[in-house]
Design brief:
Blueprint: H1 8-28, H2 46-51, H3 55-83, H4 88-110, H5 114-133
Helix pairs in contact: 1-3, 1-4, 3-4, 3-5, 4-5
C-alpha cells in the first residue's frame, strides 16, 4: 500500500487558506473586550462593525477580502500542477514564495504602503501563473 505525502505546496495551501482569518483577527485586535456601545467589536453585527472601521483596521479588513479573492486561483494552480506532475521541488518553492509574497502583501496593506503592496500583489500573481504552467509540457 502506498501513502500519498502532504507536499510543501499542499501545506502552503493550508497557510494561504488561513491567512484571511489572520487578517480578520488583526482587524478586530484589541476590540473584543470593549463594549460595542463604546466602539468595541460587535459580534452581533460584525460586518457592519468592520465597515465602520478606519485606518489600519479597515485596511486589514480589505486585505482579508483580497486574500480570499486570491485563493481560488492559487488552489487551482497548485492542484493542476500536481496533476500534471510538475517538478515537486519547483512547485514547492513557487508555492512557498507565493505565500511569503501574500504575507508581505498583508503587512504592506496594513502599513498603508500602497506602492509596495501593489508590487507584491503583481509578483504573487506572476508566481501563481508560474505555478499553473509548471507542469506544462
Amino acid at each position: 500500500m502506498t501513502y500519498a505525502r502532504f507536499t510543501v505546496a499542499y501545506w502552503c495551501l493550508l497557510v494561504a487558506a488561513l491567512l484571511p482569518f489572520a487578517c480578520a483577527a488583526l482587524a478586530k485586535w484589541g476590540m473584543f473586550g470593549v463594549s460595542a456601545r463604546l466602539g468595541g467589536y460587535d459580534n452581533h453585527n460584525p460586518r457592519a462593525w468592520l465597515a465602520r472601521q478606519t485606518d489600519w483596521r479597515a485596511r486589514a479588513n480589505s486585505a482579508q477580502a483580497n486574500t480570499f479573492e486570491a485563493l481560488p486561483f492559487f488552489f487551482a494552480a497548485v492542484i493542476i500542477a500536481h496533476q500534471l506532475q510538475a517538478s515537486q521541488v519547483r512547485l514547492d518553492v513557487f508555492a512557498f514564495v507565493f505565500v511569503v509574497l501574500r504575507m508581505a502583501y498583508v503587512i504592506m496593506y496594513v502599513a498603508d504602503m500602497a506602492k509596495s503592496r501593489s508590487v507584491l500583489w503583481f509578483l504573487a500573481l506572476l508566481v501563481n501563473v508560474g505555478i499553473l504552467f509548471l507542469g506544462y509540457r
